[in-house]
Structure formats: C-alpha cells, structure tokens
Write a structure and sequence with these properties.
Distance between the termini: 28 Å
Helix content: 55-70%
Shape: elongated
Strand content: 5-15%
CATH class of one domain: Alpha Beta
Largest sheet: 6 strands, mixed
CATH superfamily of one domain: Histidine kinase-like ATPase, C-terminal domain
Structural class: alpha+beta
Radius of gyration: 36 Å
CATH architecture of one domain: 2-Layer Sandwich
Number of helices: 16
Oligomer: single chain
Order of helices and strands: HHHHHHHHHHHHHEHHEEHEEE
CATH topology of one domain: Heat Shock Protein 90
C-alpha cells in the first residue's frame, strides 16, 4: 500500500498525469458507461447521446487545460495541486453541464440534492479512474524508457567489445608481421653477418619496429558503430490481471450510479452476482488444470467475464430496471476485463524485455572487464624485447663479434611472437574507467576516483575486478530501478580499525521501493555491497579491504559513507 501511495504521489506531481490516453478514457467512458442516455426512454436515447457528447467535450477541454498547466509548473507540489484541483473542477462541472444541456433540450433536470450527489460521485469516480489510468500509462512509459536506455547501453557495450576485439586482432597481426619481417631480414644475413647488416637490423627491425609496437600499445582502440538491439517486446496480447482488480474497478465505477438509480433489492442481487462473477472470472482460468497455455487461460478469463456481465444485466432486469441502462453491465464488465488483460500483457512483455536486456548488459559488462589491457601488455612486452634485448644483442655483436648471434636473435624473436600466450596481466583502474565511459554515452555520470584508489586498483587485480563488478551493477540498477538521468560514482580509500578500505558508492536520485534489496545470490552482495536509501538518493555501496599482501576479503561495516 505504501508503494502504491508513493506511485500515486509521483504520477500526480510528475507533470504527465493527463495524457492522450487519459483523455481517451475520459471521453470514451463519458459517452458510454456514464452517459445519461441510459436513463432515458429508447426513443429519446439519441438526445441523451448528444448531451453526453457535450458533457464529454467540456470535460475533455477542462482536462486539456489541466495538462497545459501541469506541464508549465516547475515544482512537483505545484503540479500536484493543479492536477487535483483541475480534475476536481472538471469532474464537478461534468454533471452540471449535462444537467444544463438536458434542461435546454426540454428534459427535466435533477433536484439540487440529486445534483449534489452526482457531483460527489463524479469527484470520486473520476479521481480514481483517471489516477488508475495515469498510473498504468506512467508504468508503461517508464518501462519503455528504461528498456530503450538499456538497448542503447547494450549497443554501446557491444561496440566497446567489438572495438576491443578489433584492437586485439590488430595487435596480434602487428606482432606477427614484425616478427616475420625480422626473421626474413635475419635469413638474409651472411654467416657471420657484416657490420652493416647488424647495424641495419638494429635500426630497422629492432628500434623502428619496437616504436610501431609501442605506438599501438598507447593508441585508443578504434570506435566501432554500435548495433542497436532492434527486438522489441510483443505488446499486443492478453494476460490474466491481478486477482480482484476487475471486480474492484467495476464496483468503484458503477456503485455511485447504482446507488442513485437502483432499489436496495437490486443492489443486493447485483452485489451477489458481482462477487460470484468476479470470483469465477479470476479463479476459473487459474484453477482449471486443462488450461496449460496463457492464451487458453486468457480466453476463459474473457469468456467468464462476458457471462458475468450478462449476469449483472440480468440482475438489473430482475430488480425492475428497464431501458438501455440494463445493458451497461453487460458491456462494462467484459470491457474492463479486456482492458486490464491487455494492460497486464503489455506490462509483462516489457518486464520480460527488461530482464532480457539486463542479463545481456550484465553479460557484456563482464566480457568487457578485461578490456584492451592484455593486448596492450603483450604489445609492450614485444616492443621491449625488440627495443631492449634485440638491440642490446646487436650492440654486443658490434663490440664483440660472435658466430651465434643469429640463433640468439631468433630465440628473442620467438619470445616476442609468444607474448599473447603469456598469462594476462591483472585488471586495474582502466577497467573501471572503461565501464563508466561506456555508460556515459547514454547517461550523465559524475565520477570521482582519487589517486590513492587508482593506485590500489592497479596494484591488486582481484580488488579491481570486484570494484568493476560493483560499479557495473550500480550503474545498471540506477537505470533499471531509479530511472536515473544522472549517476554519481565515487571510489576512494579510507582508513578504519580493520585497515585500509576501498570505499565505493554509486548513487542516483530516486526512491527505493519498499523491501527492495540485492538478491541473496547476487555476486556483488557476496562482495559486501548493499542497496540503501540515503536522503533522496538510491545508493549501492560497499567497503573492500585493501591488503598489499594479496589476501583480501569483503567487509560489511556498521558505518557506511552517506
């Protein structure tokens, strides 16, 4: 309930309470379910429809004015005040406008007492109906926005991974070419080599080629175009909505009109039919063992809702009601059921898409963690072998000629050719920088990593990998759960009674849903990270022990940075 209240507060003050969908729902219901045409004889129903149309147009215009106001008020409190006051005025004006139109058309109007009752019921019904509509629209928009952002992040990560792979291929190809060229030159030597051959080899095959290797080791990988994930959630479908939702919405919407138009006997019979029909609509599709697929369950759900609607209309007839209004329950209940089944399918499809994208982003972030560090280290090693060792052997040959120089240099070239087969160097601060830079293409990221923290990350590969995982998870959560547009990442060193600690925090503005926490099986939770609310921000934070000896373990401290 607290979460629902928080969502209502957010949507009322969010600046998009009234949308095209809100207006569509308001006009459609004004012309059908709550139209005064149902209270008139069949031969006068058209006049009632015209009156409904006038009321719907005035209602829609007033809501449009509310939309303009809320989009031009800068503060959430001001927007909420404008929305609540505007919807209240529009809802109260609707029955007054309809009554005036009925009197102008020659029909008797309602008494002051009845008109006051209609104003009160309109206030309740429309505030609830429009708020539910706004909540659903906001949820769908939010998930679509988050999924679009995740698709962009995935494209950026894929591009970064492709750039890394392209860099690695270029590095390997350059080492192979340099070694092959050197061996070709070596094969052309005399036995023993002349002074000119040794000098030329030292200048060209050793010094110049080592510079080429070093230049590529220092270069940025090529920027590859990201390929956007074009797969989208299938948004049209049917899915069972939450239990009790259809019956509750029908009750809230219809009860004020039923109380005014029906006798107590009709209300009792209708209540019994509504309870039985709602239970059957919700539980039959879920309990029938022969229904194994979602489509079959949705079909039964809609079929039972149609029967419930007819049963409610039958209750109206049995209670003595006549005219078009006895058909309203037969239309309203299945239409509400169909609408919520479609909305449940949309929300579920977007949730599935978000999980797919989240898993893909997490997987690509793990793949990106190694980055270009191994290729850069291999290029640096190869450059050092040529620049330091091969040149040194050539200089020694010029000073003290030896018959074994060709074999010595060939052995050094074999070491240069083998640099990619050596163990990869540990991940350092560069990996953390890279994941932040990737996310910075799609959201604003404020970064603060102090020099001591960078030195600790570069000196401990395990520490750097754990820090990378925590920062990557924090960035992903910020987009998924807080709908963030700006994220702050801070990494620094702090001294505690347990020794030096690496303190990490990924924060964004937002409200953490009640009960939200890292999953028990979460990797970053095992590292000591926790997800908390600090003031008006959601923060993923952790303390990692920094031990120069290489023995580390995560610590969950009783005191965390705010």
């Amino acid at each position: 309930m607290r979460r629902l209240a928080s969502a209502v507060v957010h949507v009322v003050g969010g600046g998009a309470y009234v949308s095209i969908w809100t207006l569509a729902v308001a006009v459609a219901l004004s012309l059908t379910v709550v139209s005064p045409a149902g209270d008139l004889p069949p031969d006068e129903a058209f006049d009632g429809f015209v009156v409904s149309l006038i009321g719907a147009l005035v209602f829609g215009l007033l809501l449009g004015l509310v939309a303009v106001l809320e989009r031009n008020i800068p503060t959430p409190r001001g927007r909420a005040t404008a929305v609540l006051a505007g919807v209240a005025v529009a809802a109260a004006a609707r029955p007054l406008v309809q009554d005036a139109a009925l009197r102008a058309a020659g029909f008797p109007g309602d008494s002051v007492e009845v008109l006051a009752f209609r104003v009160a019921t309109n206030l309740i019904v429309w505030l609830v109906t429009l708020s539910v509509t706004a909540l659903v629209v906001d949820a769908i928009r939010s998930r679509r926005r988050v999924n679009a952002l995740l698709r962009s992040v995935r494209a950026e990560l894929a591009a970064a991974q492709q750039s890394t792979e392209a860099y690695d291929r270029a590095a390997r190809a350059l080492v192979v070419r340099v070694v092959d060229d050197a061996r070709t030159r070596l094969a052309q030597w005399n036995d023993p080599p002349t002074v000119e051959q040794v000098r030329a080899f030292a200048a060209d095959a050793a010094r110049a080629e080592s510079h080429e290797l070093a230049d590529l080791a220092a270069a940025e990988p090529p920027r590859m175009p990201g390929e956007l994930d074009v797969r989208r959630a299938r948004l049209f479908g049917l899915r069972l909505p939450p239990v009790g939702l259809v019956g509750l919405v029908y009750l809230v919407f219809m009860l004020p009109y039923a109380v005014r138009a029906a006798t107590p006997a009709v209300l009792v019979v209708g209540a019994v039919f509504l309870v039985i029909g709602s239970l059957a609509t919700d539980y039959l599709p879920r309990r029938l063992s022969v229904l194994s697929g979602g489509r079959a369950r949705a079909g039964v759900f809609l079929g039972v809702s149609v029967l419930t609607g007819f049963a409610l209309s039958l209750a109206s007839v049995l209670g003595g009601l006549t005219g078009i209004r006895v058909l309203i329950p037969a239309l309203a209940f299945p239409l509400i059921a169909f609408a919520f089944a479609m909305l449940a399918a949309v929300v579920h499809a977007l949730q599935v898409e978000q999980r797919r994208l989240s898993h893909a982003v997490a997987s690509q972030q793990r793949a990106l963690r190694r980055g270009t560090a191994p290729a850069r280290a291999a290029l640096t090693d190869a450059a050092q072998i040529l620049h330091r060792d091969v040149q040194a052997r050539c200089v020694l040959q010029l000073q003290t000629p030896s018959a074994g120089i060709a074999a010595d240099i060939d052995e050094l070239l074999a070491q240069a050719a083998d640099v990619f087969a050596r163990p990869a160097p540990p991940v350092g601060a560069e990996a953390v920088d890279q994941v932040i830079a990737t996310w910075a293409h799609v959201i604003a990221v404020d970064v603060r990593i102090d020099d001591d923290a960078r030195a600790a990350l570069d000196g401990d590969g395990t520490l750097a990998r754990d820090a990378y995982d925590i920062v990557a998870e924090g960035l992903l959560n910020a987009v998924k759960h807080a709908d963030a547009r700006r994220v702050g990442v801070s990494v620094d060193l702090t001294s505690t009674g347990a020794g030096r600690m690496l303190r990490l925090a990924v924060r964004c503005e937002g409200i953490l849903p009640r009960g939200a926490a890292l999953r028990p099986a979460s990797h970053v939770r095992s590292l000591g990270a926790e997800l908390v609310q600090v003031a008006d921000s959601v923060v993923l934070r952790a303390l990692l022990v920094v031990d120069p000896g290489g023995s580390r373990h995560p610590v969950v401290s009783a005191v965390h940075p705010a």
